Amino acid sequence: MYQELQKRFEQHLREVLAAKYNLELATIPLEIPPDLKFGELATPIAFELARKLRKAPKIIAQEIVAALAGLEGFAGFEVAGAGYINARLDRAAGARMTALGEQEHSSKGLLHAMVEHTSINPNKAAHIGHLRNAILGDTFVRLLRAAGQKVDVQNYIDNTGVQVADVVVGFLHLEGKSVAEVRQLIVDCEARAEGAVGRTAGAIDYYCWDLYARTSQWYTSGTDEENEARKKLRYETLHELERGGNETAEIAELVSTAVLRRHLETMLRLDIGYDFLPRESEILHLKFWEAAFAQLKEKGVLYYENEGKNKGCWVMTRPGSEIAEGDLNEDAKVIVRSNGTVTYVGKDIAYHLWKFGLLGKDFGYKPFFTYPDHECWISAEQGDEPHPQFGGAQAIYNVIDARQSDPQANVIQALRGMGYTDQADRYTHFSYEMVALTPRCAVELGYEVSEEDLKRPYIEVSGRKGFGVKADDLIDKLIAATRAEVDARQTGGAEAEAARPRIAEQIAIGALRYFMLKFTRNSVIAFDFKDALSFEGETGPYIQYAVVRARNIFRKAGTTPEAELAEFAKLAELDGYFHGEDAEDIWALWLRSARRTLVLEQCIATSEPAHLAKHAFQLAQEFNNFYHKHHILTEEDSARKTFLLATAAVALRELVLALSWLGIESPEAM
RNA sequence: GCGCCCGUAGCUCAGCUGGAUAGAGCGACUGGCUACGAACCAGUAGGUCGGGAGUUCGACUCUCUCCGGGCGCACCA
Question: Nearest-CA residue to the C1' of B75?
Fold first, then answer.
């Protein structure tokens, strides 16, 4: 409702400006007034026009207001302060619109989007940093879909990288395991995990977590001579993985696939799923790079360096580089090494050409993991037919942490250089800051923390060091904590007790997802169990609790939100309910409920889900306030009771919807 | 050395494309459960928005500079 009236107001303003001053402005500044006493919509346009029209802002504002006259949905316009133009809505009409709940989003500019997120190296368990990535990505997918966009969700799997190589080195050389033994270990781990409570203890990803950390240390823990040999082993292993078709690669395949399954299971606990898992092994073996290389050379994005430190390499100019063409550019980015192998950025360019359907090659596809409502496919050299179509997206979003902004910029630069400017413009590096541990949290977990680190505000998580909080451990801990709360609060009978595990899980996931979403993307999260396990104040459970309260009202009243909204629509006279002393707060709740579409579009435009998290919290806060002040079930005036029930119905509807976009369920009871 | 990000209440963070008296949560203190469940509500205290200069009718927001912190700047991924 709000956005629709905002557009109506803007259009009307344009007409007035054109008629009165013969002015056409590119943008009309609109804002939400800081207080309802200034109305519901405002514009400071008169300040901007003051210079142009050589008149005082206040005079201009008065002239505009005089010309604004009547506009459907509005009660009036007025000048305030030094020249603000404030608009007052026809509250009754606005409420009727809001009650209907049909908030049209603009259908223009809908694109086929692709979101890549999670992308954990399949050599260890997921940790809290990966959770932030996946939760941000999954939430953004939900937002795009809510806006009507078609979205493919991808999780890129680097199964032939140095991290997988490291854990393979661990299996082969630290543990001396054969292919058969590794295969057996994975089977044993899966059997153990099957029976375990949290399904995590003894799982393969946990096993690899420790082995990876041990191997990383092993590289530097010997004599210089030994370390040299170990490093050599590392790179030989890496090259065997890349080549494929050998025992080393077989172990890598076994381990990375088993760990990947664990990652999918972990994320599924948070209701996060994927459509397609492109793997680096196929990018290599299906020769994606060769196709990209040909294009890059042809378009002149890459050139062969004949001198300087990059002699013998194919390089590209970095974005923003000011070195003239032809001059020696030692700062250029190497894409093909002097030994003929391609770097990470090179492979990424090829992959992104595929994403936009510009490569002229495609993956093979095989089904890999079945979700309740869809199948997730994985790349393969020789795939199955038929298979769904992936790739060829119009807009892409890469959820990748801020440390990788340089390589991401390189890929965009390459696309632009190849003349794919539209694609480059619709390539969004959805960057976010890392999740770190507070020193206190690190100590609590039993890690050794140096004097220097103790003074820092936060300490970076490191898979290499095995330093961090594993995702499943955190989820288990949250579920245990919410279960204890639920047990302490609920007094129902056997039926209620049977529902408790499910409810505890819903609350735990709500707490976790909200925690990861309440911070804006470029803020480092200094993780602490005290904050993450909090269920009071600005948290997911607070919002879920507001939902439960609202539902309880309808349950006890023996009615439904839909029925009450239908009754509300029949009320002839509404104005009285929205004006007067204690009506302002209720109107504020309606008004915020009406802002759904505005918030959604803002989140998409800024790639920032935190705005929706804040919106949901404020909605819950205003509802709780309303709940406290106005007792509904004992209201004797039946028309007013209908009005109050409708208010609760609208708030409930918006809360549940906002939570669903955040990937948070709304429990029936808590 | 170059690039990016951050610095707002004791702590953790919001603050929409510059706009009206700078907000929330936590913590502290005070009060409220015989009313739809207190995972709640009401109130009090707490701020030179890191410092300085500039642009502007107007700056937490834009520019410059300095201070403090973080992260990137590989023929690693």
Answer: A337
A392: helix, strand or coil: coil
Q: Collapsing DSSP states into helix, strand and coil, what is residue A459?
A: strand
> Starting from the edge strand earliest in sequence, which strands make up the sheet with A303-304, in order?
A303-304, A314-316, A333-336
Compute the half-sphere exposure of residue A437: CA atoms within 13 Å on the CB side of its CA. Answer: 22
Tell me what pLDDT residue A324 has: 66
Q: For residues A115 and A154, is the Cβ–Cβ distance under 8 A?
A: yes
Tell me the pLDDT band of A103, cut-offs 50, 70 and 90. Answer: low
Displacement of CA A61 from its chain's centroid (Å): 42
Q: What is the rounded distance in angstroms from the CA atom of residue A481 to the CA atom of residue A265?
A: 21
pLDDT at A123: 95
Vertex A251 angle, CA A154 and A202, to 5°: 80
Contacting residues for A503 by C-beta, under 8 A, at least 6 apart: A482, A486, A667, A668, A669, A670
Question: Which strand B nucleotides have any atom less than 7 A from protein CB atoms?
Answer: 4-6, 12-17, 19-21, 23-27, 32, 35-42, 57-58, 69-77
Give CA A233 to chain center in angstroms.
38
What average pLDDT is seen over chain A? 91
Q: Is it the case that residue A235 has pLDDT exceeding 60?
A: yes
Nucleotide nearest to A457 (CA to C1'): B69
Structure confidence by residue, pLDDT tens digits, A186-209: 998 888 776 665 556 679 999 999
**CA–CA separation, A522 vs A433, rounded Å?**
5
**Predicted pLDDT of residue A490:** 77
The SS3 call for residue A161 is coil
pLDDT digits (tens, 9 = 90+) for A313-359: 999 988 877 766 667 788 889 999 998 889 999 999 999 999 999 99
Give the mean model confidence (pLDDT) for residues A251-279: 96
Segments of A438-487 assigned E as strands: 459-460
Phi then psi dihedrals of residue A399, to 5 deg: -85, 100
**Which residues have a Cβ under 8 Å from the Cβ of A551 and sit 6 or more positions away?**
A652, A668
CA pair distance A390, A396, nearest whole angstrom: 12
What angle (nearest 5°) sits at the alpha carbon of residue A333, between those of residues A327 and A335? 115
Output the distance from A536 CA to B27 C1' rounded to whole Å. Answer: 13
Phi-psi domain of A167 (left: phi exceeds 0; alpha: psi -120 through 50; beta: other): alpha
In percent, how much of chain A has pLDDT > 70? 97
Given this model, what pLDDT does residue A449 score? Answer: 85
Measured from the Cβ of residue A579, the count of other Cβ atoms closer than 10 Å reads 13
* Per-residue model confidence as pLDDT tens digits over A368-420: 999 999 999 999 999 998 999 999 999 999 999 999 999 999 999 999 999 99
| Mean of pLDDT values over A60-82 | 89
Please state, in angstroms and rounded to a whole number, the distance separating the CA atoms of residues A259 and A158. Answer: 12
In whole angstroms, B23 C1' to A21 CA is 38
> Is strand B less than 7 A from the beta carbon of A58?
no
Q: What is the DSSP letter of A236?
A: H
Domain boundaries, chain A: 2-89, 158-273
For the CA of A485 and the C1' of B52, the distance in angstroms is: 52
| Complex ipTM value | 0.95
Residue A451 contacts residue A506 (beta carbons within 8 Å): no
Q: Read off the pLDDT of residues A520-549 as tens digits, 9 standing for 90 and up.
A: 999 999 999 989 999 999 999 999 999 999
- Second-level CATH architecture of A2-89: 2-Layer Sandwich (3.30)
Distance CA A134, CA A138 (A): 6
**Best CA proximity match to A628, nearest among A534, A550, A536, A538:** A550
